[in-house]
Amino acid sequence: MVNALVRGGLLQEALNIVQEMKSNGIPPNTVTYTAVIKGFSGNGNVKEAVQILNDMEGGETLPNLRTYNTVLRGCVQAGDYGEAQNIMNKLSQHNLQKDHSTVLSLLKLHVQQMQIKEAWSDFQELLNFPITIEPTIYTLLATGAALAKEEAITKEVLDKLSKRNDLTPLILREIQTIQSYKAKAVPNPQKTDRLYRWSEGHAVNWSLIPKGPVNMEICSGLGEWVINRCKKEQDKNWISLEQRYDRVLQTWSKMELQKITNLFVCCGEASAILKQDCFKNKLDAIFVNFPDPPHNEENNRLFNADFIKLVHQVLKAQGTIEVLTDDKHYYNIITREFTSSNLFSEHPTQNSNDPTYFDELEKSVGRTERFSTAFKKRN
Ligand SMILES: C[S@@+](CC[C@H](N)C(=O)[O-])C[C@H]1O[C@@H](n2cnc3c(N)ncnc32)[C@H](O)[C@@H]1O
Question: How far is CA 173 from CA 39, 139, 152, 177, 355, in A?
Fold first, then answer.
């Protein structure tokens, strides 16, 4: 029951059941607790996940390595290094040995902090586990190492990666980009005016955005698509918007690596960001590639009636939005929401065919069906 609620995105309801069980003298087991923690962690709400963990530690059901790893993965997604350090201290206190999931999270956190030597040692530790390491982990580390001018590490990671025979065209292009990077001053994601973190109270500084069209990609993931568009359309300003900090940071790294100057990278939940007054009538075009489909019609759906109103609010007169998805059901919902809002008219799609990470992943397992739709703002 709790698992089903978490899978459906009904986290508060799942937590209520856990609390009800406790007050009825039936302590939830570790699996149930961990499922709820996973829901909050995966949703970017590490603080709530940690609160549940603390609650567990103070009660009868003890967390296990899986529980701690779940919070650690949440720390990676939210870029919460401080909380990750607390979790690592707890692992030592409870004499729990790291497994491959722990080490993988540490590697990602160290790259986020630009602690490349530590990340390199995590990587070597990871090689000792009987698992296949995703090519994206190699490129993540190699990118961080290249930006941090750790040339020997960059070369060694790329040499290892190039020997594999399971590389997608996107990864092969990434390898080339990293290899051709000419190091300059080491950039710092904490001290840049091109990366906005909503949770840290950052706001887009519009005075930094040059005159000209402003386009946005929402749900930008790892950023390949928007980086390509920035290169192709240099007369336009681009903003990428993504809720996961780890992915935002990868977009920022790609931007630095390729010396892109017409991109601003935003981290935060799309509705929360677009609600800000500073976005009103500011955008010429919005693109959304492969938004996460809802688990059911009503819950956790980005494209609902309120979001359509927000899109209308942030677009300039005649502004457009284009959505690409592989999910026919979601495509139908999105089309229905736009049409019934009466705020938009149908518009031809551009179908740029620029690659995205998710697109290539889906194609690699034979899922090739795509649905795209576009709308123009009615004034
Ligand atoms: C299926 S992935 C697609 C990513 C990318 N567009 C691609 O094609 O590779 C969906 C992305 O949307 C992000 N996302 C989902 N809901 C969001 C929201 N409400 N606000 C911002 N980002 C969101 C997720 O974190 C994830 O990175």
Answer: 34, 11, 20, 6, 11
